[in-house]
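can u pls check wat happens w/ NG1
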Amino acid sequence: MSDPLADLFRASFAGDPTHLSRAPGRVNLIGEHTDYNGLPVFPMALQREVRIELRPRRDGLVTLVNADPEFEAVEFEVGVAIPPGPTGHWGNYVKAPAQELARRHAIIRGFDGVLASDVPVASGLSSSSALVNAVGLALAEVNELGLDALEMSEIMADAERYTGTRGGGMDQAISMCARVGHAARIDFHPLRLKHVPVPEDWRFVVADTGVRAEKSGPAQAAYNRRRSECEEALKLVAPRLARARLTPRPPAGYAEMLRSVPDDEVLAVGEEVLPDTLYKRFRHVVTENARVVEAQDLLLQADHPGFGTLMDESHGSLRSDYHVSSAELDELVAFAKEGGAAGARLTGAGFGGCIVALADTDTVDDVVESLVCGYYEPRKLTDRLDQRMFLAVPSAGASFGEL
Ligand code: NG1
């Protein structure tokens, strides 16, 4: 059978590729902007993935050719201080895991490889972490590091900060550790996953606004600002909780705070001490955490309407309190609901990118039709519709093997 990636390999290097490293993108079902606050998230891996066919090298050179001619080939030496390319260059996501693995495990071997990805870029579906993970896994295996998926997830989360985004660890963890047919509740510090089966008749529709949410561009500053705002809010609330004797000492993080004090009391203190914007950010984080906890139970019980309602509430909070939605995201959500979705929300960081809508086998066609007629047709975005809108299939995490 012809393998276009292998053909590209032969055209780029002499000989054949020997190994395949692959890592999927993800859709986050609920729990947005909670991971970097140390609070849980609830994503699943997608059938869309980054695939690298490669051949290990004896020296430390990494050469990676992208099947998409829009992206020039990347070449560098593995090391502890790899000079980054210009901000936003895709090569930075290749260098990121190489530098982190060199710092932690003194890796010395690189590879020749060719890469193809069908994860939409800048859409909130973690194309970046899929790339970081696929390269990181390749380097870990080529250097025989013997790391497990959880260890790799944590290293890759640190690695991606090389690109300038102060992200949480959700994307790397689900892309490394996901199970076929399951979503996962992910908790942090320490990192752990609880895999929950997705009922057979549930359908998650992913629909792209067509507005790119470049996290290497302006969205990066907006994203990092949200993170700082959450830290600032906690710094103001924590001592007040201790002074009110609600906690023995100021809680060190959101997770500790929400374990010790009921949400309504935390919110009451927040409202008292925080300026308006900070309070809104804080309220989103506290209420979104509660929604994740509830979502896990509802998925286990296959409570379709209940899960949908939580998704609606999440979107409302991301729009009104966290200010990361956009007119296009709100419109897609509205059309999904009009078509009969049980719930719909933006997914990923926001500022553009995709929504995820919950339908089932009976309603999915109507939801899709409503999105096409309401959003894509009037905007003349019906070309490459299968790229813009697809059904998410809960898929397996990253893997590495011989070809
Ligand atoms: P997206 O928008 O998919 O890149 C980002 C972060 C996540 C998480 C979400 C918001 C990275 C790599 N990803 O995801 O960790 O914070 O935003 O919930 O920074």
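The chain has a mean pLDDT of 96.
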